[in-house]
Amino acid sequence: MKDYLVKAYAFDGTVRIYAAKTTDLVEEARQIHDTWPAATAAFGKALTGTIIMGAMYKGDQNLTIRFDGSGPIGGIVTTTNANGEVRGYVGNPHTHASTNDDKLADAYAVGNDGFIHVTKDLNVRNIFTSSSEIRTGEIAQDLAYYFTMSEQIPSAVGLGVLINEMNEAKAAGGFILQVMPGAKSETLDEIERNINAMRPVSDLIKEDYTPEMIIGEITKGKHEFIETISLHYACDCSRERFSKGLIALGKKELQQLIDEKEPVETVCHFCNKKYTFSDDDLKKFLDLAK
Ligand code: ZN
Questions:
Q1: Cα of 234 to ligand 1 centre, how many Å?
Q2: What does the alpha-carbon distance between residue 134 and residue 119 come to, in Å, rounded to a whole number?
Q3: What's the gap in Å between 270 CA and the centre of ligand 1?
Q4: 107: CA distance to ligand 1 center in Å?
Q5: Does the global pTM surpass 0.90?
Q6: Which of 119, 156, 178, 270 is positioned for an S-S bond with 64, CB 3.0–4.6 A?
Q7: Tell me, what's the pLDDT at 99?
């Protein structure tokens, strides 16, 4: 089963639910960034939460979330678009916790103090950032708190990453549920009962539960599926983009780089791809720079 996300309306359209399986993209992120288990748990949940949130917003909008916590991982940045592509990086991928419980591990790695910053980039001229406090370091709980505080949408968030004895991401996924105005209190009670009775998402994914089946656990069948999106870890970096970054340094800094007589190597934070610029490249940039 490849990674994908399912959108559903439930309880006569008063509840929106998004569920995703993200095992492959979390494992790919682990390999790119060489994250250790505690970092993989935190990063994997951040990537999963972010990609689900990206699917909640329409159009060609980018969403970036920064988890600036006080814990040893030293911050997580994740960014996604509405096409199911996500990428990210962490401050310290070699964060180790003495527990394999993914809930404890991510709370330890992120830390229980700091802020979540959510930036929505509609297009170049419309960038909105809203923030909320990190209260537990557990990504799912802190995102639910963000929705309630910053967007005034009552939400439930479940995220899970299971790591195997080889320290690989064995199962990852999650759901976000949002309550629309007009939902009945009986509906909320029923959802709460169903979610409390559910096993952890990572256990369900490990047992080959699909996103559709996870939604079924929450609604007991009172839903209709709207859309399916395939999910990927993808970076859109390019030589051209890094060239622009170098040109933006300005003439003085570029001249210094040329004087050093070494090729300049830039590395993409998101995918670790390296781009090397020769002396000739730098001289061209010098002409273009201000
Ligand atoms: Zn890249």
A1: 8
A2: 16
A3: 5
A4: 27
A5: yes
A6: 119
A7: 72
pLDDT tens column, 123-156: 666 788 899 999 999 999 999 999 999 889 999 9
53, 47, 77: which is closest to 65 by C-alpha?
Answer: 77
With 80 as the cut, is the pLDDT of residue 47 above it?
A: yes
**Helices 37-56 + 139-150 axis angle, to 10:** 30
- Cα-based distances in Å from 87 to 7, 23, 76: 21, 14, 11
Q: How many C-beta atoms lie closer than 10 Å to residue 280's C-beta?
A: 10
Distance 36 CA to ligand 1 centre (A): 21
Q: Is the pLDDT of residue 98 over 90?
A: no
Q: In what order do the strands lie in the sheet with 223-230?
A: 155-163, 169-179, 15-21, 4-10, 223-230
Q: What distance in angstroms lies between residue 77's CA and the mean position of ligand 1's atoms?
A: 13
Cβ–Cβ under 8 Å, residues 66 and 76: yes
- Distance of CA 269 from the midpoint of ligand 1 (Å): 7
- Bridge partners of 76, per DSSP, are 67, 90
* The token pair that represents 139 in the structure block: 């990504």
Residue 48 alpha carbon to ligand 1 centre in Å = 19
Q: How far is the CA of 80 from the centre of ligand 1 (A)?
A: 13
Mean pLDDT of the chain: 93
Cα–Cα dist 153/32, whole Å: 34
Mean pLDDT along residues 239-243: 94
For residue 64, which of 119, 9, 26, 25 has the smallest C-alpha distance?
119
Q: What tokens does 185 get? A: 């209190």
Which pLDDT tens digit goes with each residue over 7-38?
Answer: 999 999 999 999 999 999 999 999 999 999 99
